[in-house]
Amino acid sequence: MHSEEDAASACAHATALIAAGRLAEAREVAETALETDGPEPTLLLVVARAHMAEDEDDHDDDAERVFRRALDLFPDHVDLLAGYAELCLRSDALDRPGRHARGPVLLERLRELAPDSPQLLRATASTSVLATAVAKGPSAALVQSLDLLQALTTAASPEAAEKDARRRAALAPYDRRLAVLDATLTALARPGRAPLRLLVRRRPEYLFLAQLTVAVLLLARHVLGPFPLWVTCAVVVLLQLPLLALRLLLRGARARGGARASGASAAGPAPAEPPLPAVRPYTRRQLVLIGAGAALAFSAFVTTTVLTHLEDIAYPRYEAAAPYTFRGMTRTDTGDELDTTAASDPSGRVAAAFTYFYTGGSGDGSELAVTASTGDFHDATAAMVYESDTLLSSTPGVGSLDDSWRADAGAYGGWMQCSRYVEYITGEHKAICFWADKGSMGSVSFKASDMSHADVEGLARTTRQTVLLPASSDS
């Protein structure tokens, strides 16, 4: 059986390993001492805290098992009760409701045994979410980034920073933080990585400019005219590439530095104070830059989302203005064409509808019939026109189809498709063109025995622009 001094030495060594981030080794040292010396409360506490320091659910489960085993043996040990209370109170009440509920019970027991003890104060502070975050400290990635920024900004050159980090890491090979800094500076010192070193020193400024660029691109689509959204997405990806390259480099350096520190054999326990200074947070200016960039990008995203929605639901307004005569033909009025469809439309999307016939002409382009509806068709699509087989099959008089093609919709925009066919009753060759935009849809048909595609399209566009006029802003 070893002496109490051996157990105390093993506890001190394991505690120093926890401080150096070598958690698995700390557990191994403490568990070996437990196997040799038997149950000892401080060693059991070290094992539990080494599990808690991993900050993972599985290790939290292991820590709870150690605490429960230890308290079965030492039910009134204040440090064990305080440590278990911290674990329970910091657990998620939804994921681990039983564990979280044990926290107040353990606190009450601590108040009975040690009402004014520092252990009780520390455990009580664990009920604060902010205290939990502070207790965990900055992440390894943040510590690495800030150490790297400090080294590059204070050294005379990147080479000098690398040389100093290598010297300090050699003096304390067990120190994970120094080993990670050394590995990071070594990786950044390689040829061609000057842009990444600049990104380290100017990351807040780069993030601000990147977010400002994205915001400008999002708003430019509505100010300068629409351009493909993939252009903005491509720029975002390109702006992320340097950050991704730096992130991968830092992650690899953390892994190499951590492995080197874990494999190093220290001559004795790790020093109480790390050789590097405390981690310095970002300056106020840097935080303002990062926050301003994020706010700009978020505001631009919200604005472009709203504008896109408004553009999607917007539609042009038209007024029916079919002239009495057109191309030498006379309009036939039946008296009830206008608004009959609008009155029967239950959705309320059709503002007006009409069908007019023009007769009295001769040859191609005569005996013209035009049917149109105006209203809110903001969700109209090209398929409504280009997939016109259904429209043709429901059009009276269409016999054999000669050909169909997509036509230029003209100044009003939207989509147009024309077809030439033989009317099955009269045997005449005719043409019909369907159009649609977000404010109107309709068709025009006429004689077309010898008309070319261009002539058919031209007459259809002229008819559309004659019978429909853009509504005045005050109408």
TrEMBL record:
InterPro entries: TPR-like_helical_dom_sf. Keywords: Membrane, Transmembrane, Transmembrane helix. The chain crosses the membrane at residues 206-223, 229-250, 287-307. The keyword Mitochondrion does not apply. This is Tetratricopeptide (TPR) repeat protein. It comes from Streptomyces nymphaeiformis.
